[in-house]
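We close this part of the discussion by returning to an individual protein. The amino acid sequence and the C-alpha cells for this protein are reproduced below:
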Amino acid sequence: MSEAAAATPNDVSKQVLGVTDGKMAMWIFLGSDGMSFMGLIAAYIVLRFNNMGTWPSPSEYLGIQLTAFNTFILICSSVTMVKAFEGALANDVGKLKKYLLLTILGGAAFLGMQVYEYYHFFANTHGVDGAAPFRVFLSGIWEGKLVDGAWVWSHLEGSTLFGSTFFVMTAFHGCHVLSGVVYLFFIYIGVCNGSWNTSRIEIVGLYWHFVDLVWIVIFTIVYLVETPPVTA
C-alpha cells in the first residue's frame, strides 16, 4: 500500500493547507478576536483624537512604571512559551513542564499586578509630588480635596471617556490573559499525565503570543503616548 493511500484525513489536511485542523481553527479564532481588539483600539484612537483638548495626561494618572514592569513580565512569559515549545519538539518533558509552569506563573503575575493597579485606582487616593490625590473609575477621574478633615471629590472635566476606554480595553485584555492561564494550566496537567502532543503546545503558544502582542499595542497607545498640549 502506498504512503498516499495509507494517509489519514489529518495527513491530507496537512499536505493541502500546510497546517493541522487545530492550528487552522486557532488562526481563525485569533483573526476574529483580533478584529474585536482592533475595534476597541480604533475607537480609543478616534475618541482621544477628537477630545484632545480635555484628554488627561496618562503619565499624570496612570502607573506607567508598574505597568512597564508588568509588560516586561508578560514578554518574558512569551519567551518561556517558546522554550516550552522547544522542549516539546525535542520530546524533553522536563523542559516542557518547567517552561509551561513559568509561563503560567508569568501570566498569573501579570493578572496580580493588574488587580493591584485596579484596586488602588478604585479604593485608594493617589498623589505625586503634592498633586491632588485622585481615583479612577469607569466614570472618569475624580480628584480629591481635604475640606474640614473630610475628602471632597470632584469629577475631572473631560475624563469620562478616558476612564471608560481605559478600563474596557485593559479589562478585555485581562480576560484574555486569564483565559490563557487557565488554558495553559490544563495543558500542563495533560503533560503531567502524559496526554499531550506537539500540536497542542504549538496551538496554545499561538494564543499566548497573540495576547502578548496585543498588550504591547495597548500599553503603547494607552500608557506611553502623551497628550500633546493644545495650542491657541
Notes: DSSP finds eight helices and three strands in the chain.
